């Protein structure tokens, strides 16, 4: 239970009772019911997870009494994550509940304390009340005490109720916490089970992975077997591919020769044609120039004539006026009406002029039309002469007939006088005859060859004077002033003002309609129809529609017409009589009249205004359009027998109001139907004067089309060929004669001459009218059995109509009797073997048929069909037997049915059916091949072979057959072995197998035998063999030596013996040495010699010796524990020392150098190619690239030949280290011959050699495996030379070399000096006996690895020596190089092991750093700049040393040491010579006035670094300065650069003269004056110029004294009205009088430039040398402001030296 703490009693304050105190201490009920006190329960899935059985966790959780701070890591997986999150939430909830319970218990304790306090207070109040009553005091005190008692009773009751509530809340919280603990325990069990389940899942996955690995290994083995089989097949296919490729190459070469010949002829023709065109172009240009000159002369003459005519007309008009005035006076004098008379006379004159004009126009038009008709007739006659066949009569009238009819009508006066020029431009409705003419032109499609239209025959094809017909002609455009005039409807602003005004008026007119408290919202009037739609209208006609408007509001409403939209006002007219007030539901009518003037779709609204607001009725006008559809997209005829014919129809429907031309075509054909539209478009491009020429073009093209349609198919083919030629000419770049025609000409594509199975009927093209349909028949005539499918399309003349597509398909069925397998394939057959097959014949006939089977005459001796005659029942099948026995005479007998190259037989077989003309034919295919196997060579001679060895010879077995055959060698003798598979196997088609025949004789004799190879069809092929067995007089103890794995540059030794066992000549007791059947070798000493192969790592000692029979060898032998007795044998030591071949090392080094050289050459070639590509064409680039590649391939080789790679060179060492590090091991087998001769060389006299017999040679086989060394260098590409390069003196360089122990044992390392007795302080040897004995190394007791000691006074230091190097461990050696002077240093560090020595060569060079600067004098003057602007300048630092230099730049104004120099005296108190401060005026803002980038970096050797200095002053001053220091390696100061600059407020400045102020300015900021008061406060700025005239003692006059002033204009980015500075120096005449000469005295300076004012002085005659001359002049500068300088000129004469 909780502890009850009793607090000190509190005194009740006046007016505050205990209840108030309780309210202050305890929280209110709202606070106690806050969400933080609520109990959260875990989600339902947590409980489910807890109840489910789970595997036990890996580590159980041990709950403790205290709070759980940490918890075991949850298992992976989604379910474990959810459990972990739930546990975390429960943990937080449990902690919150514990905190809540503690808080509640505290409240409960406080409540009990208050109850006890109130009880005590009640007791005290009761005692006081009793005392007051006993004292018989006033009732007021008693009443007060009774009131206090009652209040305490109420508080006590309240506290007890609160105590009860707190106790209940505490019980509730404890219950919730217990529930949370239960849920937490359940989730912990579930969490443990999830851990076990995860472990089981991982175990299952490992098992599955193991099974999958086994399956993959099996699949890999199977894939390897399949790969070997595919390799054999690919070899056969490659041979065939090679033959085909050779044939293709020969054909390509032959075709190339032919193509080259034709290409040369074509190029010659092209050149001739180009020359001809160039000549014609020159002639044409000459004619144009002549025409232009003639036109110019004509224009001049016409102007003169026109001027004369104008003067004549003016004189004539004056005479006429005088005459009219005279007549008028005469008529007035006679008393008549002069005005009426003159008016009547003028009208008569105008009528006569109109008649004359009309007659002249009629005459000209008639002449023009007649001339055109005559021209047409002449053209037609010439065309008729060219054509072979006459043109047929046409049903419809031609263009010429229509033209004659039009001329007749005009001449008879049936039409009004309309100029001919308007026939094509006018409207069709206004000029019906013109529209008829256009319809006549457009109705005749233009077909035929466009090249037949000769444009050169027409004189008007190319006018003499260029004009409107030029392509670059631009029509007259209205001037902008006229366009900008006010439009008819007002400007846009006027329209906007009008719209706003109308809107304001409407807003005042309309008002809300409210009836019975409901406001009307929506459309006030309903229109019927809702959309006024004028469909398929014609231009010129009038259409009317009525609209009924119904009042849809709640009460009376008004309706007023506003109008239609602006773009509809020219076509739409609204007739509407306002009906006045309309009740709800009443209606009125509106008449809409539509008169189309343009053929275009229109949309808009008819706007009305009602009392409640405006509304509109949509209006739409649609032109005539085509809506074309097909009734079906697929026509399926089904199945029909070959020879039958059927047809279907397809319907083309037009649901629109516009008709068009249509044409049905196959999808592969093309057709263009746009000649009429092209003609209309062309007509709008010509002027009235050119219409006659255009009519000629249309007429001639139309006539050609009409005649082209009536031409024969032969003509069509000729036209097609000519079209192809024209297209070829166009592709070659030669323009055809029809290039100038813009009309579309269509060449009719002829149909295929072969009979098509699916075709269209006759009505495939025509015109479909509006709201009509056309039916087109489709015919299906099957010819070949199978499925037939054809696609068609429907094209239309109207370009807006899309092309329609449909598909036709059908199935053709063969005759009733057929063979399911028309091709019988017998595969590959062999000669003289019988092959059979069964051929099934089927019938669909319902009656029995008689069949007769026939074989072609050429194959009747090789093939037959049994039976020859048979009957097949109705709707059944019949089987006939096919037998094929190919003879060797088949290639000659079969003739054309057999291909001798491919050996393919194609034999046709015929089945004749009674009462059926068409027989049934099927073909028999077979590939006939031979069964021969060929052994090569046919005979094998093994030669001489000793009984201690075996001879292996390869033979080839070739299969000439196209089928695989099994084979095997039978009856093989015991001394012969055939491998592989002991001579048995299967050979693939056309495969050659290599077999090894191993011969090992058992005794010395001559062998002669045969090997027999049998095929699986029991054919025998024999191979003759012969050999001679040899028994040599000596033998070796071991004929095969296997060395242990030896590392590079190590040595392994083996021993063997040469034995002489020939001690008796008795051949009966044992075999004696002999060669074949020759005499036996004599008994006695026998000599031997081992012949080593060149460049082999083998050493045999001794290589020459003699062995005596029955005695010890001539050389001392080492006694062995085991082995033969020490006589009749000679000890031989064989040593193996693997090294890397020098040729391989040289090759690796050469390859590295060649790679480097090729990289350099490629870089140079890339740069040169980029330059060449800009100057040369691609055709010239190809041979140059080939030359460059040849040069690049030969250049590295030439360089390598010039460079001598020595053993000690760097490249050689790198190559050797690389090869040793990457050495993966090597296994070599050497066979060393040992020749034997009878006798001892000591017994020979002089130089007489022993007679060695080549047949008595013994052979020693050596197996030599080589492995990598034990310790290698793994860094720097395995190089053992560590080059530190160039290191600055006083600095140090670090190199890290990684070494690795690749030996199978640990190496202990210590530092020592190599002993002089043994190389590298090591001694090792091996001893072994025999070639298969286990070699045991003899180890010394010293350390296994040692380091040599470096020079203690040298610059090289090993910083981290190592004591132990484990197996496979890599250790990094840190080497330091610290040069103290400029010197080239080299030392060697040896790492000595028992298995070899690793030598590290350390090389380094100490150099001194040095840089140069591009600034002369180390002063960088930034010049003048406008204040608050910036200017930049750059300079370079060059690294002249061979090592990279780290640099940093520092400004003195930013230096930390500058503050130490501040207590010194000010600079202006010292003289100019004593001033050492280089930091001048700085910015007021505190920012540095100079800045430089980059501040630090590294300069590569021989490279230059660019630096940019920026000068940014913020006020005017002439003494900005700073010093820039260049620091190398953060230590050494290399160079100091003085930075200077000046700033002005304005763009002008004056420089020069003597200094009059100090270079240090005041810290006080001088206020600037306003621009308007600048002139009032402007002061004259002084400039002192001192001129010293040097008086010389010589007779020659001295030169005048000269000084210069610089006037400059600063380049600025500010906008200024002045682009330059003007200057003027006043008082020039006065100065000149006193001897001064100023050049120039005035001038101007451009921005960014300066101009020099030269001032010279020569003493005048009245000059007093004792008194200097002092004058002044005013220098004015005018720029953005005006500045005036007072130039003080002081001149004096000084005596020279």
Structure, explained:
By secondary structure, the chain is α+β, with helices and mostly antiparallel strands. 30% of the residues lie in helices and 31% in strands. The protein contains 19 helices and 77 strands. Strands 21, 23, 25, 27, 28 and 29 form a 6-stranded mixed β-sheet that branches. Strands 31, 33, 35, 37, 38 and 43 form a 6-stranded mixed β-sheet that branches. Strands 40, 41, 44, 46, 48 and 49 form a 6-stranded mixed β-sheet that branches. A hairpin with a 7-residue loop joins strand 18 (786-796) and strand 19 (804-813). Helix 3 packs across helix 5 (139-334). It is extended. The two termini are 123 Å apart. The N terminus is likely disordered.
Summary keywords:
disordered N terminus; single chain; extended; six-stranded mixed beta sheet; 1697 residues; alpha+beta; 31% strand
Care to count the β-strands? 77
- In what range is the share of β-strand residues? 25-35%
Major beta sheet summary: 6 strands, mixed
Nearest-angstrom radius of gyration?
62 Å
Layout of strands and helices, then pairs:
Elements: H1 18-25, H2 29-32, H3 44-51, H4 78-135, H5 139-334, H6 338-386, H7 399-412, H8 432-443, H9 480-483, H10 492-509, E1 514-515, E2 518-519, E3 525-528, E4 532-537, E5 543-551, E6 559-564, E7 572-575, E8 587-594, E9 602-610, E10 613-623, E11 628-630, E12 634-641, E13 646-654, E14 660-666, H11 675-683, H12 691-709, H13 713-732, E15 758-760, E16 765-768, E17 772-780, E18 786-796, E19 804-813, E20 817-818, E21 823-830, E22 835-843, E23 849-855, E24 863-866, E25 869-872, E26 877-884, H14 890-894, E27 898-899, E28 904-913, E29 920-929, E30 933-936, E31 939-946, E32 951-959, E33 965-970, E34 976-979, E35 984-987, E36 992-999, E37 1006-1015, E38 1020-1031, E39 1035-1036, E40 1040-1042, E41 1046-1047, E42 1052-1059, E43 1074-1075, E44 1086-1090, E45 1098-1101, E46 1104-1107, E47 1129-1136, H15 1142-1175, H16 1178-1202, H17 1210-1221, E48 1226-1238, E49 1258-1267, E50 1271-1273, E51 1281-1288, E52 1293-1301, E53 1307-1311, E54 1345-1347, E55 1356-1358, E56 1364-1365, E57 1370-1377, E58 1384-1393, E59 1396-1407, E60 1411-1413, E61 1419-1426, E62 1431-1439, E63 1445-1451, ...
Parallel strand pairs: 4-10, 12-19, 21-29, 31-38, 40-49, 41-49, 51-59, 53-54, 61-68, 70-77
Antiparallel strand pairs: 1-2, 3-5, 5-8, 6-9, 7-8, 9-10, 11-13, 13-17, 14-16, 14-18, 15-17, 18-19, 20-22, 22-26, 23-25, 23-28, 24-26, 27-28, 28-29, 30-32, 32-36, 33-35, 33-37, 34-36, 37-38, 38-43, 39-42, 42-47, 44-46, 44-48, 45-47, 48-49, 50-52, 52-57, 53-56, 54-58, 55-57, 58-59, 60-62, 62-66, ...
